[in-house]
Amino acid sequence: MALSLVSLAIGAGHLAAASFPGRMPGVAVFGAGMLTGALTVALAGWFRPRSQDSGAGQPPAASDAAPAGAVEVRARQARPRRGAVASPVPAEPPPPAPSLRIGVLGSLTINGQAGALVPAQSQLIVALALNRDGLSNRKLRVLLGADSGHPKPADSLRQLIARTRRALGQAGDGREWIEHLGHGQYALHPDTRVDWREFETLTAEGISSAGAGPLTEALNMIRGQPFTGCYYWWLEPAMVDAVTARIVAAAETLAELSLAGRHPAAAVRAARIGLTADPSAEQLWRIMMRAEHAAGNLAGVREAWGRCLHVVSEVAADGQPDSATSAVYDELLAR
Predict the structure, then answer these.
(1) pLDDT in tens, 135-172
(2) Across the strands, what pairs with 178?
(3) pLDDT per residue as tens digits for the range 292-301
(4) Helix (H, G, I), strand (E, B) or coil at 249
(5) Tens digit of pLDDT for each residue in 71-119?
(6) What is the CATH number of domain 195-334?
(7) Helices 282-294 and 237-260, interaxial angle, to 10°?
(8) What average pLDDT does the segment 235-244 reach?
(9) Cα separation of 229 and 109, whole Å?
(10) Half-sphere exposure (CA, 13 Å, Cβ side) for 100?
(11) Which of 41, 154, 231, 295 has the fewest CB neighbours in a 10 Å radius?
C-alpha cells in the first residue's frame, strides 16, 4: 500500500512537469508534482483508518471464522432429534385444602397434632365437636368456667373465640371454623371432621350388616384410650365409658367375623386394637386366646392369659378374672 502511494506521488510529479513545458524550470515543476503527490498520500492515510473502523461488527473473514466442521457439529447439537418429545415442566402441586380434624379416639389431636392449641382453645373445640348442633353463649360460659358455679366471663369467652379462630385460620370457603349461627349460638364449620362421629357411622354400618370392611376402617382410627388428655370437669365418665364400650363392641364383632372366616391373625389384631381402648375387656382376651390357638400358637395363648391376669388383678374387686375367661383358657390348653 505504501509503495502504491509513493508511485502515485512520483507519477504526479512527472505529470505536472509534462503539463507545464517551458513555463517553469523542470526541477520546480517536478517538485510541485511531488508536493501534490505527498498531499494525496497524506489524505489517503487520514481516511484509511476510518474506513477500517467502519467495518467493525462485520462478519469475520473466512480465516477467522470457526471451522466449518465445528459449525456443523454445533448446528446438529442445537437441532432436536427427530421424533423426540420435549419433557413437560412438572406442575407445582396445589396447596392442601384447609381442614379441621379433631381426634378424641386416643390422645386429643387437632389436625393430627397433640398440643396444637393452648388448653383453653382445645377445650372450646372439644365442647363444640361433641355437640353437633352447637352451643349457646351461656352454655359455653358454663362449660369453660372453673366449674358449674363459676362461668367464664362473657368478654373472656369472646376473646377466646377470636384467638382460636386466628389460630385455626379459615375454611376453604372463607368462613370461620367456629361459626356464629345467630342469637348467641356457636357451632363448628360443617366441613369439620371428628373421628368419633366417623367411627359411629362406620361401626353402625358394620355391626348391622356384619361387614368386616367398615369395622376394619373404624378400628384403624383407634389410637389408645378415648379422650386421653381431656381433663374437663364437664366431660362425664358415662360419656367416656359409652365411647369405650362402642370400641370394644366393634373390635369383638370384627374379631368374631375373622375367626369365622378362618383368619386368626385378623382376629388377634382386632382384639388388640380394642384392648388399647379398654385393657380390662375380658371378652377380647378370650377372643385373643381362641385366635392364637386357631393359629397353632400355644405360646400366644399363655401370653394372652398372663397379660389378662395382670390387668384384671388391678381392676377387679377380687383380683381374679371372670369364670368364663378361666374356662376358655383351661379348655384351650386341654386340647
Answers:
(1) 999 999 999 999 999 999 999 999 999 999 999 999 99
(2) 188
(3) 999 999 999 9
(4) helix
(5) 454 545 555 566 555 566 677 777 778 899 999 999 999 999 998 899 9
(6) 1.25.40.10
(7) 20
(8) 95
(9) 10
(10) 24
(11) 231
Whole-number pLDDT of residue 6? 43
* Cα(24)–Cα(112) distance, integer angstroms: 118
- Backbone dihedral angles phi then psi of residue 136, each to the nearest 5 degrees: -80, 160
In 3D space, the residue among 132, 128, 162, 131 whose CA is nearest the CA of residue 144 turns out to be 128
Distance CA(252)–CA(166), nearest Å, equals 42
Architecture of domain 101-194: Orthogonal Bundle (1.10)
Cell of residue 12, nine digits: 504526479
Query: With bands split at pLDDT 50, 70 and 90, how would you rate the model's confidence at 45?
Result: low
**Residue 258 backbone class (left: φ over 0; alpha: ψ -120 to 50; beta: rest):** alpha
Higher pLDDT among residues 20 and 256, named by residue: 256
- What residue type is assigned to position 120 of the chain? A
pLDDT at 196 over 90: yes
Q: Which three cell numbers stand for residue 288?
A: 385373643
DSSP labels, 4-48: HHHHHHHHHHHHHHHHSTTTS-HHHHHHHHHHHHHHHHHHHHHHH
Rounded to 10 degrees, what is the CA torsion of 311, 313, 314, 319?
140
The two most distant CA atoms of the chain are separated, in Å, by 159
Which residues of the chain form CATH 1.25.40.10? 195-334
CATH 1.10.10.10 domain residues, the chain:
101-194
As a whole number of angstroms, the distance between CA 135 and CA 45 comes to 102
